[in-house]
């Protein structure tokens, strides 16, 4: 069984792409087969895995707009068990043209034809709550919402969770969400206080593991490698590996319902 996860937040700059590539690589390191799909026109995930979106002629836009098979745009990364469907500038047209297609909300879901060789598929969504993010959430069992412990991030969090309710009403009633605290600084009193507020408000809706500030995470994106390959013993790599174990435990409990 393939487990589909969207990583989204209306606000940019919250380590969304970092979470997709780092969590995906950590899951692959466990022995899982993982597919990452870059849905953002900025193509940061594509670049984070060492590909140049300018020279990428086939992308996820071909799947969404031309209904090309996923296999036609799939690329292997340099990390064993980790594959990528890249993005490029053509994705900028998706928000305009997707809504005029019949049942556009289910194009991503239908692109898998009910089966997949992957254990996990992770969607890196753009920082907006439009047609592309709707597609990802309609195809997913879980939404991960990376969130900084700061006021503007929490404001965007409310809008994102309101969007989850609409997706549930429009065809994916079993979609769950988990909030992931990112770029967390234990020395920052505001961060500590907002973390306590989130724990009190969301309880099990908040991941137990948090992602702290780590410059190695930024460096790994620059060199085009996941943190688990670039600096496997760094704090960021170890935290994302712990997050992968927490995600896998949830999925184990989820799959157990069907056995």
Folded structure, characterized:
With 259 residues, the chain is of the alpha/beta class. It has one domain (3-256): Rossmann fold. The chain is built from 11 helices and 7 strands. The chain has a 7-stranded mixed sheet, sandwiched between helices. α7 links the parallel β6 (142-147) and β7. The chain starts with a strand and ends with a helix. The model has no long low-confidence stretch (mean pLDDT 93).
Strand order of the largest sheet: 3-4-2-5-1-6-7
Element string (H = helix, E = strand): EHEHHEEHHEHEHEHHHH
Tell me the overall shape.
globular
Output the radius of gyration.
17 Å
Strand proportion, as a percent range, falls in 5-15%
CATH classification, class level = Alpha Beta
Q: CA-to-CA gap between the ends?
A: 11 Å
CATH hierarchy: architecture: 3-Layer(aba) Sandwich
CATH superfamily: P-loop containing nucleotide triphosphate hydrolases
CATH topology call: Rossmann fold
Task: Estimate percent helicity.
Answer: 40-55%
The biggest beta sheet reads: 7 strands, mixed
Structural class: alpha/beta
Please report the total strand number as a whole number.
Answer: 7
Task: Quickly count the helices.
Answer: 11
Task: Please state the average pLDDT score.
Answer: 93
Low-confidence stretches: none
Helix-strand blueprint:
Layout (H helix, E strand, L loop, with lengths): L2 E5 L8 H14 L4 E5 L5 H5 L11 H7 L8 E2 L5 E4 L8 H4 L9 H5 L8 E5 L6 H9 L2 E6 L3 H19 L6 E6 L7 H14 L12 H9 L3 H4 L4 H22 L3
Parallel strand pairs: 1-5, 1-6, 2-4, 2-5, 6-7
Antiparallel strand pairs: 3-4
């Amino acid at each position: 069984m393939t487990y589909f996860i969207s990583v989204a937040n209306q606000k940019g700059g919250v380590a969304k792409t970092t979470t997709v590539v780092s969590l995906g690589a950590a899951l692959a390191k466990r022995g899982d087969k993982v597919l990452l799909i870059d849905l953002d026109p900025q193509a940061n995930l594509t670049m984070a895995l060492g590909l140049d979106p300018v020279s990428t002629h086939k992308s996820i836009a071909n799947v969404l707009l031309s209904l090309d098979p996923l296999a036609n745009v799939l690329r292997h990364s340099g990390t064993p068990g980790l594959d990528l469907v890249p993005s490029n500038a053509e994705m900028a047209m998706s928000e305009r043209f997707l809504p005029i297609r019949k049942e556009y909300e289910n194009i991503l879901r239908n692109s898998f034809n009910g089966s997949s060789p992957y254990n996990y598929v992770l969607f890196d969504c753009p920082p907006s709550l439009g047609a592309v993010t709707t597609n990802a959430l309609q195809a997913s069992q879980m939404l991960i919402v990376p969130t900084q412990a700061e006021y503007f991030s929490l404001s965007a969090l409310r809008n994102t969770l309101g969007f989850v309710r609409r997706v549930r009403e429009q065809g994916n009633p079993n979609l769950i969400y988990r909030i992931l605290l990112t770029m967390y600084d234990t020395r920052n009193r505001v961060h500590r206080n907002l973390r306590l507020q989130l724990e009190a408000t969301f309880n099990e809706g908040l991941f137990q593991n948090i992602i702290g500030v780590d410059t190695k995470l930024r460096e790994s994106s620059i060199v085009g490698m996941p943190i688990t390959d670039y600096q496997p013993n760094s704090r960021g790599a170890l935290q994302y590996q712990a997050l992968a174990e927490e995600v896998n435990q949830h999925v184990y409990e989820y799959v157990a319902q069907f056995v």
